[in-house]
Amino acid sequence: MTYSTLLFDLSDGVALVTVNRPEKLNALNATVIAELGQAVSRIETDAEVRGVVLTGAGAKAFVAGADIAELAEQGPIEGKARALEGQAVFRRLERCGKPVIAAVNGFALGGGCELAMACHIRLASDQARFGQPEVKLGIGPGYGGTVRLPRLVGKGRALELLLTGQMIDAQEAYRIGLVNRIVPADRLLEEATRLLRSILENGPLAVRACLEAVDAGLEMTLDHALLLEANHFGLLSATADMREGTAAFVEKRKGEFRGR
Ligand code: COA
């Protein structure tokens, strides 16, 4: 598979996916969204892909939003269809069952902030900037900004960002819980990959169950979410990985997980 707006490099289980339109600050046009959808299909189905680091090409931007040149032309039918398509791609990424880390290397605005929020963990370079500036263009977020931002940072902080459209720096994004960590720009990819590899040392079925339980559990009543967790706990107790992990602990060695 070759892409015109993405780079997809697989190395020892880690897929490094780079949005690659640096001359337009990696803005999400229809091609990027379609190709992200194809990349997600591979992530979902290719057993060689065990986890993902997602970043943007160049030193300046992660993704500077939806492509404003395309937005400027759209009518209401097309606008809704575009939002639904992007939302579906981001949602599939969020539910792909494998850990996805956003390495936010610069501007993450509008659709870029929304893409980062659809990832499971966000590392920000000290150069990163975040914002949902759509209202400045007379439109609102279309790829989940009003939905994921309040879930991540709380309603008041989300509304301040959504209503003002103001940009915040990496420190502020860290302070409000939008990013997990800040990393020096020149070490961002290395740290994101290191973090991902530390996750990949764990039982993959257990990791997948955590992703599923948190994703589904946040939408459930407390009692249903607890029941889902108990069901995962029971199900994982039937896996060879669980026998191996507990045996390895007792034998004081590192577990060798096979995803079985
Ligand atoms: N869509 C389309 N093109 C974009 C873009 C976007 N979201 N963001 C940046 N670009 C393009 C610029 O038009 C410019 O292209 P050009 O060289 O052909 O004129 C190029 O990327 C570089 O951007 P530029 O604005 O010159 O860089 P800057 O350093 O002066 O400013 C930003 C950087 C991020 C502050 C500014 O580009 C910006 O505000 N972008 C839009 C952010 C936004 O509103 N996103 C939400 C969209 S819903």
Describe it for me?
The protein has 260 residues and is α/β, with parallel strands linked by helices. The protein has 2 domains: 195 residues, 2-enoyl-CoA Hydratase, Chain A, domain 1 (Alpha-Beta Complex); 47 residues, Orthogonal Bundle (Lyase 2-enoyl-coa Hydratase, Chain  A, domain 2). The protein has 11 helices and 10 strands. A 6-stranded mixed β-sheet has the order 1-2-3-5-7-10, with helices on both faces. It is globular. The two termini are 29 Å apart. The relative contact order is 0.11. The mean pLDDT is 98. The site of coenzyme A has 15 residues, from helix 2 and strand 6.
Superfamily (CATH H level) name of the largest domain = 2-enoyl-CoA Hydratase, Chain A, domain 1
CATH class annotation of the largest domain: Alpha Beta
* Strand neighbour order, sheet with most strands: 1-2-3-5-7-10
| CATH level-3 fold name of the largest domain | 2-enoyl-CoA Hydratase, Chain A, domain 1
Low-confidence stretches: none
Radius of gyration: 19 Å
* Silhouette: globular
Q: Hey, roughly how much beta strand do the residues contain?
A: 15-25%
Bin the helical content.
40-55%
How many domains? The number is 2
Largest pleated sheet:
6 strands, mixed
SS field, number of helical segments: 11
Structural class: alpha/beta
Q: What is the N-to-C succession of helices and strands?
A: EEHEEHHEEHEEHHEHEHHHH
Q: What separation lies between the terminal Cα atoms?
A: 29 Å
What are the bound molecules? coenzyme A
CATH architectural grouping of the largest domain: Alpha-Beta Complex
Number of DSSP strand runs? 10
